[in-house]
Amino acid sequence: MSATLLLVVFTVLLGLAVGSFLNVVVWRIPRGEKISSPPSACPKCEHSIRWHDNIPVFGWLLLRGKCRDCGEPIAARYPLVEAVTAVAFGVIAAVIGADTTLVWALPAFLYLAAVSIALTLIDLDTQTLPNAVVLPSIVVGAALLALASAGTGNWGALVGALAGGAALFAFYLIVALISPRGMGMGDVKLAPVLGLYLGWLGWGVLAVGAFAAFLFGGLFAVVLLLIKRARRRTAIPFGPWMIAGAWLGIAFGAQIWNGYMVASGLS
Questions:
Q1: Largest Cα–Cα distance in the chain?
Q2: Tag placement on the chain: N or C end, fewer CB within 10 Å?
Q3: What are phi and psi of 73, to 5 degrees?
Q4: pLDDT per residue as tens digits for the range 29-53
Q5: Region 226-236 average pLDDT
Q6: Tens digits of per-residue pLDDT, 51-64?
Q7: Torsion over CA of 78, 82, 83 and 85, rounded to 10 degrees?
Q8: Cα-flanking dihedrals φ and ψ of residue 66, to 5°?
């Protein structure tokens, strides 16, 4: 078995465990509850979930989606979050593992994937981006990208990350001050987290990721208006589109930016 395949298998298993933890984060953080205690329990009968029933994905399948004690249905969202996290971790490991120069960046991007999933679900559920998740992510993201730069010897990337985080924060802050109804402060606080990662990969990637967020969000709003599921003043969570735009930039930003530069005659 190749080293890359071993890495992917390990990160998939890690993703399953992290996905289970994210379910706790998504449920408890918006409610102001501790994530460390009490142990997970059925919200209907309040019986603690047995360890063998709490195995990511497989526990839900073995229980056929129902509580062992009271038979109350367990939402399919729980195993879905676990599976999506595992797949996301595996894909990131496969891509980064294929490039030995980027292996040091793996912890940073796995962390971003976990935070992205948690914040997307929380924002869709509550239209908030909790400080308890966002603010520590700025510090942890910067630290992990510093580790990546130390491992690769590319300190210029770290400078780009810090500059990118500051630039995207300043941009979103200006937008929020100009249009407070259209941009929440949670989005402003999320901006430096995404800017760190986009900036670490380059200014072109940052530009693509930042633009894509508004493109995705705008298109989604237009669709909702056309199908009459929203009005012009309807509040729409923007955090998920910021995250989607950032990941587009991470995955394809360099190619898109280079293509744009060539097509515009600037390169």
A1: 67
A2: N
A3: -60, 140
A4: 999 988 877 777 777 776 777 877 7
A5: 74
A6: 777 889 998 888 88
A7: 130
A8: -135, 150
Which residues have CB under 8 Å from 228's CB, separation 6+? none
Determine the 3-state secondary structure of 45 from DSSP: coil
CA dist 136 and 176 (Å) reads 22
CA distance 247 to 198: 9
Instruction: Specify the residue for token string 């935070």.
Output: 115
CA dihedral for 195, 189, 92, 80, sign (positive or negative): negative
**In sequence order, what E strands does the chain have?**
none
Q: Report whether 148 contacts 184 (CB < 8 A).
A: no
State the DSSP string of 148-189.
HHHHHT-HHHHHHHHHHHHHHHHHHHHHHHH-TTTS-HHHHH
Residue pair 97/182 in contact by the 8 Å Cβ criterion: no
Rounded CA-CA distance 72/52 in Å is 18
- Phi/psi of residue 62, each to 5°? -65, -35
- Per-residue confidence (pLDDT) for residue 1, from 0 to 100: 61
User: What is the chain's length?
Assistant: 267
Query: What six digits make up the tokens of 93?
Result: 């490991």
